[in-house]
Amino acid sequence: MATESTTSVMVNNQRIVVNGLFSLGCSFFLSQGNIIASDRTYAEMFGASSLEQVTLGIIHVKPGTNLIALQQGIAKAVPGVKALTHQELQTRELAFQDTNSSSTIFNFGAVMGFIVGVAIVYQVLYSDVSDHLSEYATLKAIGYSNRLLLLVIFQEALFLAVLGYIPAVLGYIPGFIATLGMYQLLTNLTRLELVMTVNLALTVFILTLAMCLISAAIASNKLRAADPADVF
Known about the structure:
Elements: E1 2-11, E2 14-22, H1 39-46, H2 67-77, H3 86-99, H4 101-131, H5 133-141, H6 146-162, E3 164-165, E4 169-170, H7 172-190, H8 198-225, H9 228-231
Antiparallel strand pairs: 1-2, 3-4
Helix pairs in contact: 4-8, 6-8
């Protein structure tokens, strides 16, 4: 959306006159700004050879134009040039944002968080089993099988997954509430719309359950090896 404004700025050590402003929206990527210039102005700022490195252009068409036929005509007339509609360009940009290096970094952080979470929950469950080893040994002595005792540890792991163990482990419910608050805070700070979707919430919940169950399975090794005679 353009607004009426006129000012002069320095671009590439050259002073140019800005005849209007436009809003491009927010982004996670830092930028000093964007300009729209004619080919002549662009050549004066960056040299005539820069016109051979154009990566994106805009074509204004009359209302009612057959866009598919126009795209096919451009593809035939100018080989190597891809003609896209506004919606197709948006789709390609969103797909790029989902597959670029920043998404890779975020995904790597999620994987590392999962691994660290397994280690932390394992420490909590292992400490609990060690502190109550005599009680578990008593249950084994009176006939409880390793499967039943393992079920007890899994139940504790599910409790940790849903409610957590403050301050060592933040469960899903308090973590979900805290995340909603962080989303709102980041939205206010960056002006970027962050939405908690149902698919994202379910994915995180399933990963949280898997994280705690894996930790429980590892922590139960000490319990399976425990002999009531050794404990008493």
